[in-house]
Design a protein that fits this description.
alpha+beta; 135 residues; Arc Repressor Mutant, subunit A; three-stranded mixed beta sheet; two-stranded antiparallel sheet; Dna Ligase, domain 1; DNA-binding; homodimer
Chain lengths: 135, 135
DNA sequence: GTTGGTGCAAAATGTTTGCACGGGG
DNA sequence: CCCCGTGCAAACATTTTGCACCAAC
């Protein structure tokens, strides 16, 4: 099901801007609103930054992108077509590693059973230090 | 070791403002810069918000407070004297639950052994839905 | 008396909104 | 042709910075 149909099914229109924002997030893998905006500027006449914000919000409602909070505060979006994953962010070098949700299942299972808490794994970010940066 | 000594040991001065900011964070448990500022206004003539920011940054350097990212984007500080803990944030009702680091040891141990990643547990926040909000 | 810390105001940053025009359906 | 979506500019919220004065030591 392509973007056009996804939008029409909910009464929204397909515009070049919306396609570009989704393309940007898909191509970049991890993109802040500014990252996506910059990517678009490189290959199109330009999309206003406020349209990028509005579009990311819409795409997230549609379930086409998700966001997590990586580098402090800035929301980072990634396409929902990519498999859900946990992010490890290294404070030393800034490197971002992706980990399979299955690997943290022991923790999420514990939270569910012990605390009745249903964790949103796709939104989970673990800060720390990677192998090369550990003191 | 009290705040005065902690500061002097590193060449900083003790001021009423610094004591108040630390008091605010300790009393509130979880406090954004604005929360701390508001708490101080209630019992002292007033501390400028920019001083609150500068002081929180300093106290974090000294290891007297830590911060995590709870409600999207806003940094939330807590006193380092409180035992380190993981935060569970419910998207439904906003409730914040604290979990012992020992409980997530299976995950942090796995990250350390499988990925060489040393997780900062005190900074870890898990978003999801609590028992009463799960659909 | 020195020097670092604070208050104030302005700037920088990131995000949202009101409105009129233009393009998608 | 209608109305949603966009660009633009302004409003907004949050955090940072420059500078003169004041207080800690």
């Amino acid at each position: 099901m392509d973007l056009h149909e996804q939008l029409r099914a909910r009464g929204y229109r397909l515009t070049p801007q919306r396609q570009l924002v989704l393309d940007a997030v898909t191509a970049l893998g991890h993109a802040t609103p500014e990252d996506a905006h910059a990517w678009i500027q490189l290959r199109a006449s330009g999309v206003n930054i406020s349209t990028v914000y509005r579009t990311l919000e819409l795409l997230e409602q549609l379930g086409l992108v998700n966001h997590a909070h990586l580098s402090h505060g800035a929301p980072t979006y990634h396409a929902a077509t990519a498999p859900e994953h946990v992010h490890l962010v290294c404070r030393g070098c800034g490197m971002i590693t992706e980990v399979e949700p299955a690997e943290v299942e022991p923790m999420t299972g514990m939270l569910r059973e012990q605390h009745g808490f249903q964790a949103d794994v796709g939104h989970l970010t673990v800060f720390g230090e990677c192998a090369t940066c550990v003191p």
